[in-house]
Each structure stands twice: as C-alpha cells, then as structure tokens.
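Q: Got a minute? One more chain.
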Amino acid sequence: MSAVPSPADPSAPASVEVVVLGPAYCDLLFAGLEAIPAPGTERFASGFVTTAGGSAITAVALRRLGRAVALVADVGDDPYGRVIQRVLEREGVDLRWLRIRDDAPTPVSAVLSTETDRAFVTHLPAPGEPPDLDAVLAASGARHLHVGGFPAALDLPDLVATAHRRSVTVSFDPGWDERALRDRRVLGLASACDLLMPSRSEAARLAGADELAAEAALSRLAALRPHGTTVVKDGPRGAVATDPHGTARVASPRVVAVDPTGAGDVFDAGFLDAWLGGAPLDACLLSGAICGARAVTAHGGASAAPTRSEIDRLLAEASEHAATREPT
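A: Always. Here it is, folded:
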C-alpha cells in the first residue's frame, strides 16, 4: 500500500484546514433515466459519466469554496482509482493520505439516476489497515474532521476522542446502510460528534424508527445528543437544524433538476463552510441548501458544486429563500 504525493500545483494549499475521512467511490453514473428499471427489465440511459463519488464529493466541494482540504481514503491500483485521483488532483485536494492498495480494488458504485431520485449498487472492498488518525491530524494541522459515511465509525470507534484531544471538531454524515445505522458504534459517533448531518431517512433509522418527518427525526436526535448541532436534510423540501441557540428551517431553492447524486454531500460542504466561518445556524442552512440545490443541476456528484465567488453571489441573491429561526 502506498500514498499519493500532494499535487505539485503551486496554487495548492500549503496547510490543511479540513480533513475528510471516508470511502471514495468511482461513480459509474447512468444518467437521464425515465425511471429506475424493475427487476427483469432494461432501460437505456441518455448519458453516462464516470467520476469521483462518496467522500471525494464533499472534499471537492469544500475545496471549490476555498477551504484547504485533505482526503483520507483508500483506492485500488486500477483504472477506477486513477479516475478518482485525476478528479482530486484537478481540484487541488491534498492527497498525502490517499492510499493506493495493491491488495484490493477501488470502491465502485453504479448509479441509476432519474431527475428526482437515484439508486445505487456498490462494491465496497473489505477494509485495509485503519489510518493512524492521530498522526494525520497532527501532520495536517487541521481544525476540523468531516467523516463521510459509516465505515469510519466501524473502523475507528474512538475517532471523536482522538480528534477532540487535538482540539479538532468533528462532523458526521453517516450515509445509507440499513444495518450500520442501527450499529452501536455508528450511533456512538452520531451522539459524540459536534455536527451531525444525516438525511431524513438516515435520521429516522438513527432515532430507531423506519420513517419520520424531518422535524420529528430532528427532535428525536436532538434529545439523544443535547450538545452541538444537528441537521436533517430533506431533499427538495429543504432542511431543518438545531443547536444550543435554537432551531432553523430552510426551503430548497428552485432549480432545474438533472441528477440528485451527491446533493447531500455538497450540502455538507456548503453548511460546513459557513459553520467553520462562525455563521449562525440559519446562514449555515442557507449555504448548505444553495450548494445542495446547485449539485442537482448537472450529472455527477460535485460537478456543479459552486466556487467561492459563485456561493457569495448566490447567497446575496437568496433573500427569498432565507432560513427561518426559532429561539430555544
């Protein structure tokens, strides 16, 4: 197993502000489907895209917003891994902790995408040796760790304590897995992190239910973790959140949807960018909602994620979508 050296681009950041930890997938995206095919049937996609998915989406989206970002993930020594490397290098993500495995292939997701929904078939190889997170955080100098996906909770159950010992805050987007969302290690990370950002369906499972409205899921999760900030993303219906100062809601901006793949991961980047800048909860929600909405306007995870100048302009134009806040 080897690590990829940092990009040689002189514009690449000299230090890291955010470390993103979690599986990076090579997404094989079948775009423009009229519907997800039923078993035993076939549909033809109008487009096909191969790009970086999973935690790489949030890393790229944060980098576009001007944050210095490193990705901690494993890829295989294969064509799919090289796709991910090319995307990350082009975007200027720090690759010092992207490990190349010669004993396992790159994680791959086949994504079947309509304008409003998507389905995944994913191959996630057996995990290799967990990264030395304390060493990564020490060497990077990061002030925040974003955990994308449940596997890190299974491999590194003490990661929040490790980060907090170095005064590094932690955010967690668990992603979808029916069994993992009920695993005590995933629930432990969801409870201990500083910022929790599941989708509505993921939040319901974390709260012990099959389905809940976003507000009900938020209420249950907030009761389980009375500290920090909790966000529940609800797709085109927007998002709700709570922190020690109150509760906020935001509607999703209206856009022409092409592909919803990765919208939640790009939302995470927009919310985190504002949160790391010390913005209030409603402003963080608005930034996340705008970034997530932009993501659905093009095929592939972070392909439409906004730049710093674009998000500043969109925020200035977004007064009609402003989040509403209720005091505690």
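A: DSSP finds eleven helices and 15 strands in the chain.
Q: Perfect, thanks.
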